[in-house]
Amino acid sequence: MGYRFDDLTAACQDDWRRYVEHDFVRQLGAGSLAQGAFRHYLQQDYLFLIHFARAYALAAYKSRTLADLRQAHEGLKAIVDVELGLHVGYCRDWGIDEADLARLPEAKATLAYTRYVLDTGNRGDLLDLHVALAPCLIGYGEIANWLNAQAFTVRGEANPYDAWIAMYEGDDFQGAMRAELEWLDARLADVTPARFQELSGVFRDATRLEIDFWQMGLERTD
Ligand SMILES: Cc1ncc(C[n+]2csc(CCO)c2C)c(N)n1
């Protein structure tokens, strides 16, 4: 007993590295990612974020304390006030307005991941839901930090995706990531080995669905 968040990544180390260090991430960091791949990813991510905002709303609904409610509210606010703004802004530059985005058909990878998280949250408790959401929030913070530590990463105007990296390395996101880490560390400290096994399964599934999401962007599949 006495688990913490790092035990979740350690339990699926290969999948976690395949997610954080995916070719999509590498090419984005190098600035060499095809614009069509990034556009496809970002358009699908717009649809994805709307469902993830619903998942944070579900976390608010399942909260028993004001502290838990605040934690869910932070996630919902970050999506609605910050993250979606970047997506809408990039798409506007490509001549795609928000009404066009809302009309896009959902790719299978988007459907699978978002509905998995919502189903896990509906079926389970608040901890199941936060664990299903963790690869997303904590993973993207780690990805931004990992990219900044790689020699191939290009920053500034020479990289068309610089704003993407800047958002996830920014204080708002890094702060939200740390708050989520603390929240999870506090809850995982008390779980039994059997419960940890269950939660590891949820975390691994969500991580694998993140890998599929990158792959969907790279191959522009629907
Ligand atoms: C496929 C995919 N996975 C993770 C994120 C990142 N993200 C989504 S919601 C959230 C928490 C609050 O903003 C974060 C960091 C994304 N955009 N798209």
Automatic annotation (TrEMBL):
Stretches assigned to the Thiaminase-2/PQQC domain: 13-219
Gene Ontology biological process terms in this record: thiamine biosynthetic process; thiamine diphosphate biosynthetic process
InterPro entries: Haem_Oase-like_multi-hlx, Thiaminase-2/PQQC, Thiaminase_II, Thiamine_Salvage_TenA
Keyword terms of this UniProt record: Hydrolase, Thiamine biosynthesis
GO molecular function, one term: thiaminase activity
Pathway: Cofactor biosynthesis; thiamine diphosphate biosynthesis
A GO CC term assigned to this protein in UniProt: cytosol
Catalytic activity: thiamine + H2O = 5-(2-hydroxyethyl)-4-methylthiazole + 4-amino-5-hydroxymethyl-2-methylpyrimidine + H(+); 4-amino-5-aminomethyl-2-methylpyrimidine + H2O = 4-amino-5-hydroxymethyl-2-methylpyrimidine + NH4(+)
Enzyme Commission code: 3.5.99.2
Main function: Catalyzes an amino-pyrimidine hydrolysis reaction at the C5' of the pyrimidine moiety of thiamine compounds, a reaction that is part of a thiamine salvage pathway.
NCBIfam families with a match to the protein in the record: salvage_TenA (TIGR04306)
Record's protein name: Aminopyrimidine aminohydrolase
Gene name tied to this protein: tenA
